[in-house]
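Limitations
The structure tokens in this dataset are predictions for the assembled complex, not deposited experimental models. Users should treat interface geometry with appropriate caution, especially where small molecules or nucleic acid strands are included. An illustrative entry is reproduced here so readers can see what is and is not provided.
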Amino acid sequence: MNQDIFVVVEHLRGQVADISYIMLAAARDLAQATGGEVVAVLLGHNAQALASNLAANHVLYGDHSSLAEFTSDAYTQALAGLLSKEAPRAAFFGSTSIGSDVAGVLSARLGLPLVSSCVQIADGNLISQICGGKIMAESALSDEVTTLVTVIPGGYKPAQGQAQTSPAVTTFEVSIAAPRVSLKQYIEPEVADVDISAENVLIAVGRGIQTEDNLELAEELAELLGGVVCASRPVVDQGWLPTARMVGKSGKSVKPKLYLALGISGAPEHVEGMADAEMIIAINMDPDAPIFDIATYGAEIDLFDLIDPLLEALEGA
Amino acid sequence: MTNIVVLAKLVPDLVEELEIAESGTALDMEWLRLIINEFDNHATEQAIILKERSGGEVTVIAPEAEGANEMLYTIAAKGADRLIMLKGDFEDGINNHALARAFAGAAKELKPDLVLTGVQANDDLDGSVGPLVAEYLGMSYVGYISGVSVSGETVVARKEYPGGLIAEMEVTLPAVLGIQAGEEPPRYVAISKVRQMMKTATIDEQEVGDLDASGGAMVQRMYVPEAAERAEMLEGDEEEVAARLVEIFKEAGLV
Amino acid sequence: MPERVNYWGIPHNWGAPELYVYTIMFLAAFVMLFRFYRQASLWWKIGQPEARWDKLHLRLGRLIQYAIVQTKVLRQRYPGIMHVAIAWSYFVFFLGTALATIHDHFFEFLFGNTLIVYKFILDAFTIVFLVGAGMAIYRRYVQKPRRLTLEAGFTGSLTLITLIVLGGLFTESLRLAVEQPAWAWSSPAGWALAQLWIVTGASEATLTGWHLGVWVFHLLIVAITLITLPVSTLMHALTGPLNAFFSKLDTSFGALSPAKETPTGEPIYVSQLSDLSWKQLLDGDACTECGRCQEACPAFAAGTPLSPKKLILSIRDALHSNGSQLVGEAILPEALWACTTCGACIHECPVLIEHLDTIVDMRRHLVIEGDVDAELQDALTNLGRYGNSFGQSERMRARWSKGIEPKIKDAGKEPVEYLWFVGDYAAYSPTLTEITKKTAVVFQKVGLDFGILYKGENHSGNDVRRAGEEGLFEMLVEKNLKALERSEYQTIVTTDPHSYNALKNEYPANGNGKKPVLHYTELLDQLIASGELRFTKNLGYKVTYHDPCYLGRYNGIYDAPRRVIEATGCEIVEMPRCRDQAFCCGAGGGRIWMAEGEMSERPSEARIREAVELNAVTDFIVACPKDVTMYADAVKTTGNEAYIVVKDLIELVFEAM
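Predicted assembly:
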């Protein structure tokens, strides 16, 4: 086993996902502790160009027609061979629709330990966030075998994992036997009436909004502030707002000037999509809501008590 | 006829304060309130929807825990046909690698066409159960699924990517799917139906023998995070908070 | 001497008139009874069995009170007078005819002064009837209130019963015109009309001939009325009294029953006609379509799809024509969910129809099918898991009491005299924390020995049951009983009228050791009477008081809260709809947990507007935690913040102490 840290680069439809840069930044931290290098592993088909701004010591590129689009089966086959051969100290995957599909299978197949939801590196150890962010767990790397790690955003900024100069790329051999999983087609998200990721002001509603009728209040507020309403997953699952308005892991990532979170508790899946907002104001009745840990301003108050006076004050402003 | 197995587990209810056990490396189980993993709840709903749509049999497997009986009876009341509870040395918690091996051992006997489980759980520390079980069973795994249709030897699953993009994945059966959301939100089950199930349904208890926890995380310590930079809290009644907010908006040049 | 002449002016050469009168009448009565039986037998052929034969003396009392004296009918002046004018007249005519029959065949007594009185009474009620019929015509064809459905059958029935009375009047007047007896004045209406015949100068023979014609016509109309009765508006004259007789005894409607069961013990969830009990089918046939329920219904007034009248009539229509599926077809789930269970419909119904029981039975079906909206599902799930609808840990239940010194006793750990059952809203809702604290402080200041159950308390289940989740209700009851059994106390006191109702009327009395249950307004009233609670200030506010449904209509507590308010030195100005006519805030029966849906005007807003109309009233006093929330919102949304303030009664007490 060597001391290198592998990062399995995630990309979708020709775009490297932010999580890849975050992982590279985390891997840099860990590599410093282990004394190894950061190695980006890029899988794809005619996708070598995606390696251009990865902040890695070098890139291992595996090309195969079955890797043109992500499928769990093809990726695990490609990576199982590589990891067995290269035996790095650790391999990073996104705690995402791509990385999570692969890391667990590899852990079981290769008998390697797996640590999930890692958000930070501290003294060569992995800090994971569990129980909705209420508990942190610090785990050590294995000294004998490669440790597999899935990473969640929060500890590093994507920019920390981006480089100005292109790293050296080496190609490795990939063999994939008849995959049992194949992509049939992509279904595009419904065409959105607004692109929430381009808005300056977002009024975000969560479970605390209680009823569909109450969305009107948020709409009024949005109008006065010149923004639009977005939501966390439960609101979208109820069908009260279209998927295009969902912020978070399976929705959009947003960076508005103002993110006013009404009745949003701040589950990690949601925070992932909005933590980079310039200013976050959280209104929530639960003093222990994790949203207050990342917000700029907070108020522990019933949002329904607040909205009317706030609308009035804004109209007067 | 699809033979569907659902793997469900109970997780800490985050409504309660969580405490760390004396060992410092695990949650204090004594004070935990357990609740069905919400994603497993969605997986259950998806399984019942598949059964209602095209027939089949649904078996639910869950590890023993406080409230596991009730959870199983509730799922039975929704329409599950068979309930299995795994018994073993779970008192101090069990990592997902050990649980997945136990799940796989029980599921193998049932020769399922399709195994559904939640894509994640709030206490996952060594990956989620789904991909581990898939590998132990020698099946394919696809996660982040929010819709499933079975046709013959394959299943078409709607896999979610960020931004609302969906990939339709065709997976050859047998397979394990990690469910993000069922096609419909989990239905309500009247308490009387659950109580009825307690009288009529039986839970098949299976001993799992020695647990093999290898592959799990090597936890050095667990702790409750200190909120490093907590928000500046606005105090006062709603009028005062509203006035302060407007000031903040003005400072930021938003109004 | 005045004497009664049988069959005056009826030729006997066709045979004895009795013979064909009785033949026709018996035949008509037989046809009527047969047709009635055919209708009524559907009740027990289709409906489920239900025991309603107990305590016959009480039931007879109900019959007299509601079907004969008609106290409910008389709750509204115009329609009340109109209806009893018609009904009581017919009772008198019926009695008169029976007396005449006795006189004719069994025992002669109608002569002399007795006959004079007899004649006078019958004649007077002829006038009473005509006044009533006139009022009915005016109401139906000129006033046309929205709540009435003006169907053709009504006109037919009114015509028939008016023709019968006119027939009697005309035969009498024609007879008097011929006979002109000295005691003719004892029939003032008949005698007055007789003058008309006398003025025409027609001969005795002509008048006698006319008399015969009218008499035959009268006889036939009576026969037609009888024969058509079971399919006409008049059917209610049979079904109404039956419904009053078989009405729910014991409590008016404070206690619901669990779902009925099949002989094998399977619960019956009502979705179609045959799931209803025979009594619920009778409800449908007993409905007089008077619309009082609809007029009193807050859900109807708010423009929701619920009309309690339409709901009951759907049952009747399904029974007699429209097929058997009720829920989802004739009765929409949205209509069932719109009910606030305020009980106004039952309270107003002249024939004691039990709308609410049927609505809850049907909600039970929806709950079993999982057909509940997302918000209600959340609330029920939370109630099942944490014992409160807020989805908070039970350990947080007494968080409101933080900072109160000395610490409130834990009734589960040490004996107390009063066990205070705080209720969900008062305990968990952050907007109510101050009020709940004030209640505790008032209790402490008067030196009350009281305690709370801390995390041992669960939601009482009152509205869980009314939302149709009977199993969850049972579970909550079990949990609360366990906590109560562990505690030592003399009396339960509640803040919340909903908990009050459940604890008092629905919890098994033995589970609570038959200890009394008081609402805090009752307790305060007692403490004032005993001198333990004294006020140092005379507040002098002009206030109005809103009767909570579950305190007022459900449990008849109207005066205790008013006495307490007055003791603080406030003057009460009553709203037009007060006491048992109080208009619901819209939160009951689980409505507070559900999506609001389309509404033209929220009941709480209508109520605030009603209070603001009173002028000069500064405070809107409530005695229910949910009311504080509902009405404080309504004051904001109707823009009345400058005119009226919502206060809990305890705030007045706190201020005046």
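Some entries come with short summary sentences. For this one: Chain B is about 30% helix and 30% strand.
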